[in-house]
């Protein structure tokens, strides 16, 4: 397994457990990058704005389903395979993907 050299705008997220993709390649980390505009139009916002404190304030609620779709888009790993990751890996990867939208 060779290490990928990251370019500007890419973030590598280490995985707790290796992931085998649809082509049989093993990944010990996932390299995320900013999604394209076309992906944004197709997938949509990765968050919802919700009212809290009796409507006095707003908060952001992450949509992990959509974030995982963005991860599939930028990594090329099929979404059903990403769903087999350890739940902590899903949290870490989707949290890192969310940073592109901040």
Commentary on this structure:
With 102 residues, the protein is of the alpha+beta class. It has one domain. 34% of the residues lie in helices and 30% in strands. The chain contains four helices and four strands; from the N terminus they run E-E-H-E-E-H-H-H. The protein has helices spanning 37-43, 64-75, 79-82, 87-98; strands at 10-20, 26-33, 47-52, 57-62. It has a two-stranded antiparallel sheet with strand order 1-2. The protein is globular and about 50 Å long. The mean pLDDT is 93.
Structural descriptors:
single chain; 102 residues; alpha+beta; two-stranded antiparallel ribbon; two-stranded antiparallel sheet; 4 helices; 4 strands; 34% helix; 30% strand; globular
Structural category: alpha+beta
Q: How far apart are the termini?
A: 33 Å
Q: Biggest sheet: strands side by side, in what order? A: 1-2
Topology, number of strands: 4
The biggest beta sheet reads: 2 strands, antiparallel
Rg, nearest Å? 15 Å
Give helix and strand order, one letter per element, not per position.
Answer: EEHEEHHH
The average pLDDT is 93
Total separate domains: 1
**Share in β-strands:** 25-35%
The unreliable regions are none
| Total count of helical runs of at least 4 residues | 4
| Apparent shape | globular
Q: Can you give the helix content as a percent range?
A: 25-40%
């Amino acid at each position: 397994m060779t290490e990928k050299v990251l370019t500007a705008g890419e973030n590598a997220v280490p995985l707790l457990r290796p992931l085998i993709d649809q082509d049989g390649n093993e990944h010990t980390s996932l390299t995320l990058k900013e999604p394209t505009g076309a992906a944004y139009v197709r997938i949509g916002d990765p968050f919802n704005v919700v009212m809290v404190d009796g409507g006095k304030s707003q908060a952001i609620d992450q949509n992990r389903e959509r974030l995982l779709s963005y991860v599939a888009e930028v990594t090329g790993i099929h979404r059903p395979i990403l769903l087999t990751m350890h739940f902590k890996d899903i949290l870490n990867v989707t949290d890192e993907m969310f940073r592109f939208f901040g």
